[in-house]
Amino acid sequence: MMARTLVTHTGGCHCGAVRLEVDAPRDLTVQECNCSICSRSGYLHLLVETEQFRLLQGKESLSTYTFNTGVAQHHFCRHCGIKSFYVPRSHPNGYSVNLRCIDSDSLGKITVQTFDGRNWEANVAELRRARTGQNNE
């Protein structure tokens, strides 16, 4: 198996208070979920391991929202309201970074896969297989 080359992508919220880096391939596969929160916000999930994610600035600018089981930690910029990343219920030891919050200069080909989050319990195994490295070429 050939090793994947990772690049460092940067991004953040709308106002710039929150900035982050994430190590992932240039060409990405992301998930578009139809659950109640993702469908309303247009979130595109780039799932990464903890060691691939770095919050560069803005920890003090984050507010956290939880619902249902409380496992997912939805982090929003308290100034502009943008959720550029969060700790997902499906990957509580990693992060989901919103592809729409990544600066486009580092991005290559983007493949969007749909995920039926409205039926989360029945489909979570599929989402867990979507971790970086399992669906990315």
Mean pLDDT across the residues is 88
Oligomer category: single chain
What CATH calls the topology is Metal Binding Protein, Guanine Nucleotide Exchange Factor, Chain A
Report Rg.
14 Å
Q: Major beta sheet, specifics?
A: 7 strands, mixed
Q: Could you state the order of secondary-structure elements as H and E?
A: EEEHEEEEEEEH
Strand content: 35-45%
Specify the CATH architecture.
Beta Complex
In the residues, how many domains can be counted? 1
Give me the secondary-structure category: mainly beta
Which of globular, elongated, flat, extended, rod-shaped describes the shape? globular
- CATH top-level class: Mainly Beta
The amount of helix comes to: 10-25%
With strands numbered from the N-terminus, the spatial order across the biggest sheet is: 6-7-8-9-4-3-10
Number of helices: 2
The number of E-state strands comes to: 10
Terminal Cα separation, in Å?
A: 11 Å
Poorly predicted regions:
132-137
Task: Give the helix/strand layout.
Elements: E1 7-12, E2 19-24, E3 28-33, H1 36-41, E4 44-49, E5 53-57, E6 62-65, E7 73-77, E8 85-87, E9 94-98, E10 110-115, H2 120-128
Parallel strand pairs: 3-10
Antiparallel strand pairs: 1-2, 2-5, 3-4, 4-9, 6-7, 7-8, 8-9
Q: What can be said about this structure in brief?
A:
The chain has 137 residues and is mainly beta. It has helices at residues 36-41, 120-128; strands spanning 7-12, 19-24, 28-33, 44-49, 53-57, 62-65, 73-77, 85-87, 94-98, 110-115. It contains two helices and ten strands; from the N terminus they run βββαβββββββα.
